[in-house]
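Hi support team,

I submitted a single chain yesterday and got back a structure, but I'm not sure I'm reading the token output correctly. Could someone confirm the output below corresponds to the sequence I sent? I've pasted both exactly as they appear in my results page.

Thanks,
R.
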Amino acid sequence: MSVPSAEPPVTPAVRRALSDAQRLAVQELLRVAPVADELGERFAAAGHRLALVGGSVRDALLGGLGNDLDFTTDARPEVVQQLLRGWADHLLDVGIAFGTVGARKGDFVIEVTTYRSEAYDRTSRKPVVTYGDTLEADLARRDFTVNAMAVVLPGTTFVDPHGGLTDLALGVLRTPGTPEESFSDDPLRMLRAARFASQLAFTVAPEVVTAMTAMAERIDIVSAERVREELVKLVLSPDPRTGLTLLVDTGLAARVIPELPLLRLEIDEHHRHKDVYEHTLTVLEQAIDLEGGDVPRPDFVLRFAALMHDVGKPRTRRLEPGGGVSFHHHETVGARMTLKRMQALRFSTEISEDVSRLVELHLRFHGYGDGDWTDSAVRRYVRDAGPLLPRLHRLTRADCTTRNRRKAAALEASYDHLEERIADLAGREELAAIRPDLDGNQVMSILGIGPGRDVGRAMAFLLDLRMERGPLGEAEATEQLRAWWASRS
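Hi R., thanks for writing in. Yes, this is the structure output for that exact sequence:
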């Protein structure tokens, strides 16, 4: 595997990192060589060039190349389809309109993209794709130097015209050309800078940060769906705080998730409260630490709920006599704001409702006090959370960021007690699926009525009764239903 001829003007430690990266890359590429070389030979026999490129090369250099392989070629998409047909197990429709042909081969998912350049005009939300003729020109239009490296196939000829290997060793994100040109071509790259900073633990070069700040408004032309996908990847990264802070500091967050920077509430010497913005990022980090078990790792619903749980505070902030500050009903206001933002970003209805429901419920535990909830209240807590209960447990615990150790310990003990009561009740009752003791058909038969609103009212009464008193059995429920119906008459 050849290396760039220019010696990086960096320290011996960085040179050792470069050597380690090359060694890891060789190991990773040898693993995928049978598939990659076979495909490269197929393209070469047809008179075309093929190279492993972008994130695949970067990940190979970091020692983490998976089974998703990205290639680039001078062949046009229709030719790529012909070359893959008969070799791949089957073709995938992943984006041929943008010059990409997908395929599966064994355990590998492959995408082959024709050399291209893409740019936005000032009014379009979609990139205008034009095909290129050289690998070097294709690499020049990539977002960052660490993604502008290639390995030409068959074989392992390394191509790195923009110093991506050095930047990889230094852990820095730079653009192949000027960041202004790069972000003008595709403004979404500004969000990618934040995402890669969080994913790879990289520093964003100062000139890139400057361009992101100056060009933040350009993100407005990018579709909500593309913005959403980058935001999801950032939130699911190992260190979302880094990327989110960059988005806030550059002004990009104000355009894609404006609720976040608004959490930087003004705090004066007379009206004190905790820094809501910093508190929110800490809650997000603590929620991440609590993932696992019956909550996936990573889990977008939990993480985004942690990020949005206090967004209702700016709208509900009230200055109280004596220097206090209140945020009454901020969880209800925040839930509505969260749902509206997620709808604007084109999240699915299910995910949007789950996140907003967690925001709405995140303060419910604080009514538990010294553990004086009735069994009925515990049942309602479980029922209202439904399948979100494991996430609500973690969000509630993560929301404790006090530095007062005694207070933190008391809150933790109180929630431990609530979880013990939930487990105890669950052992005696089917808490996760609380239903009335009678079904609708039984209600109509007992009361001698047909379908209609009265059946719904009767079922609501029976559910409330079940919540208050636990399982009653059919006989007791029937007696209570008749008494309720007679009182209504």
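A quick pointer for reading it: The longest strand covers residues 108-114. Let us know if anything else looks off.

Best,
Support desk
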